Amino acid sequence: MALKHQAPLGTRDLLPAELARWQWAESQARGVLERYGYGEIRTPIFEDYELFARTSGESSDVVTKEMYRFTDLGDRDLALRPEGTASVARAYLERGLGGQARIHRLWYMGPMFRYSRPQKGRFRQFHQIGAEIIGSSAPGADVEMIALFVDLFEAWGFSNLTVAVNSVGTPGTRREYGERLREWLAPVASDLGGDSLQRLISNPLRVLDTKDPRDLELFDKLVRGGAPMPRMLDSLDSESREHWEQVLGGLDALGIAHRTDPGLVRGLDYYTRTAFEVHDPSLGAQSALGGGGRYDGLIEALGGPPTPGVGFSIGLDRTMMVLEQRAAGGPAVPGTIFVAAMEGTRAAAAQLTRELRREFRVDCDLESRAIGAQLKLADRAGATLVLLLGEEEWARGEVVIKSLRDGGQKVVPRAMLLEALRERLK
Ligand code: AMP
Question: Is the CB–ligand 1 distance for residue 209 below 6 Å?
Fold first, then answer.
């Protein structure tokens, strides 16, 4: 049968069996975020196109190629959000949060949209969980962010994570560094891929973000030829250097495993100083599970007062792929009770089912099947216990509890039923 409709390319349905793991992961994350004292924020899924164009950088992939931009019936220029931070910063300004407290710790979760080429681990609608500290420029804020980032992964069962860290300096030192990169790349510039060549002119730092294997090979060639890649870390101004060293010291003090990756540049323009990322090699080419960094220029770029910030976002789709591969992180499935009725106890069974559902997970037959068929149904549904509502027993005020684990049966007075079930299922 040819289907008339399919989910749009790059999107998918999450079905109950998969969602059990997602919901478990989401509730683990909520627990960690709550204990860290972060407040949840929910912003619209679409915003003015300009909000993202201005904050992500006109030359970024997200803006030039990946935006779901549309005009609504009132002729407004809008876009589905490609990320969360710009919206959080917009809300921070619009709702006057800066006037309420000096430092805000916020988190969000939800779908993001990018028109990128779908492949393993890359979707057009994907899901992120992210956190921000707005209002503090202290290195301690960067360290808390990275600790929270790692603790989320640990709550999902990841262990031995190493965070890649770098400092991307300030816009001023970045310009200087860009010049050094241009000089370094000059001998191979004409062989770079189209995107990288474009970036070499508009924003040379972004060339380091390339995933094109031919570009990477050219970088290697330069290094092998005795020209080491210039490091942003060698171009830091003294304040950024001091900040960088304090962040590293803070991570050491907390025992957070990290390694400096001088080629780590974040895809978005508003980052300053600290940048960090984690990868999981099992994912192949799209291996970044999450990343973040400091964005001291963002709120000012939106017309607000100079306000520092630091944050991260984690891709839940990729994180879930890793958990699935490891068959890890499933929720503990609570025991299910199946209420099986006879002809004369169907109404009573419906009532009892509803009552028990206030406390237990309860399944029942919807189609008045014979008792044998109901038992098969209970077995297939993975029920732990069956309540047999035989007509005679029910009339005597009794229920039969049958265990599907060991086949054992026990007759219990109706008045004692809740107690007995609590006892069996706890
Ligand atoms: P970014 O906002 O680009 O720093 O992305 C943060 C995280 O979101 C990445 O590390 C990925 O895990 C995830 N992510 C970004 N883009 C996609 C995508 N198109 N599909 C799935 N996950 C994505």
Answer: no
